[in-house]
Amino acid sequence: MNKWQTLCHIDDIEEGQSKGFEHNDQSIFVVRQGQQLHVYHNSCPHLGINLEWQDDQFLTADGTLVQCAMHGALFLIDTGLCIAGPCQGQRLKVVEHQLQDGRLQIRL
Ligand code: FES
């Protein structure tokens, strides 16, 4: 089992915003909702490419869904389920994570 590794502090991500990270050759993104963080691999289930349309921009304009920039697939923030688009019914891959004293730790 891999060790927990610190990715960032919760305050590094603004409330309601998303942020991308490169960590150990893996592309990851995080969405903050209050004190909750959702962490996924940055890979669209449709074609396996990165989702964002520009740095750290993974969400729809109203911030309610994750959106793939390539063909517009929409994903629920809390589960990663695709609810519209070419990969409807598939899911973003969750990165195992925990919060410790405000630090976001992940296990790849
Ligand atoms: S690559 Fe994401 S919707 Fe096509």
From TrEMBL:
**PROSITE patterns per UniProt:** RIESKE (PS51296)
**Annotated signal sequence range:** none
UniProt-listed InterPro entries: Rieske_2Fe-2S, Rieske_2Fe-2S_sf
Boundaries of every Rieske domain copy: 5-106
Q: Does the keyword Iron apply?
A: yes
Keyword annotations from UniProtKB, A to Z: 2Fe-2S, Iron, Iron-sulfur, Metal-binding
Please give the Pfam families that the UniProt record associates with this protein. Answer: Rieske (PF00355)
- Protein name, please? Rieske (2Fe-2S) protein
